[in-house]
Amino acid sequence: MVYKITQLPASKHITRSLQGLRRHLQYECLMCGSRLASNKQHQQTDQQTTQSLCEYCYEDLPLNIHCCRRCALPMPADIALCGNCQKELPTFDQALAPLRYEGAAKHWIRRIKHQADIATIQTSVDLLCDAISNQHHQPHQSQPSPVDAIIPVPMYWRKNLKRGNNQAYLLAKAVANRLQLSFYPNLIVQTREKPEQKGLSRHERQNLKGVFAIRKPIKAKHIALIDDVITTGSTMNTLAAICKAAGAKEVSAWALTRTPKPR
């Protein structure tokens, strides 16, 4: 049986979400609450993200500048492919994650996951769309074809009910609206609990068989999957394989953050 869950913030999160929106509308920094210089000044900047953050908090963001060009794994220098991708390329064709999952980015993700904070989601969409736009202006990288449709990484229905929202859905819907792309929120469903991936080897993480199911063939040529965090890449890899088996020719993996390789 497939359960369709309507994505609405739980009532306990509404007050915090409105507080975040109040900051956004009154031009206070989303992270520290300090007063921004002026709306007019921030509108003149090239990057949308700076409209919601003060100069200091923006500089404190763990930007994922040096990363693998295939899976977006943070790298110490500008190296084309990480060791894992050199050994075996993932099923998805390219990945994008503007932040490393550390420091301020972890706090950011918690606000989306557990508070469904409207202003944080909006700023996250700004950051993602900035990164997507910049991706098409990288002379040393092959340019991906235009994305036709966006699919959020699905969440198991029981977990969705417990938390009150699916952060991947919230991000994906907002990005689809911003970029004016087709949005397929219920095309792929999670049919059972996903095994814990943390601490498993690369081989052991290939344990997602049967966790996800697709409802019908995909007509869009290029699909973008969206999540808040790419941790190991296994979920994105599995979903990309499902999309390609259903008819997609190209699959991108987009996320707000990417977990660095353990040291």
Our measurement of the CA-to-CA distance between the termini, rounded to an integer number of angstroms, reads 42 Å
User: What is the β-strand count?
Assistant: 8
Average pLDDT rating: 82
Alpha plus pi helix count: 9
Biggest sheet details: 6 strands, parallel
Write down the secondary-structure element order.
HHHHEEHHEHHEEEEHE
The CATH architecture category equals 3-Layer(aba) Sandwich
Q: What characteristic shape results from the CA principal axes?
A: globular
Determine the CATH topology: Rossmann fold
Keywords: Glycosyltransferase, Transferase
Enzyme class: transferase
EC number: 2.4.2.14
GO molecular function, one term: amidophosphoribosyltransferase activity
Molecular structure report:
- The protein has 9 helices and 8 strands.
- It has a single domain (64-258), classed as Rossmann fold (3-Layer(aba) Sandwich).
- Helix 9 links the parallel strand 7 and strand 8 (250-258).
- The strands form 2 sheets. Strands 1, 2, 3, 4, 7 and 8 form a 6-stranded parallel β-sheet that branches.
- It has 263 residues and is an alpha/beta fold.
- It has helices at residues 11-25, 39-43, 55-59, 83-87, 104-115, 118-135, 157-163, 167-179, 234-245, and strands spanning 94-96, 99-100, 149-152, 182-183, 188-190, 212-214, 222-230, 250-258.
- The relative contact order is 0.17.
- 35% of the residues lie in helices and 13% in strands.
- The longest helix has 18 residues, at 118-135.
- The model is unreliable at 1-24 and 39-46 (pLDDT under 50).
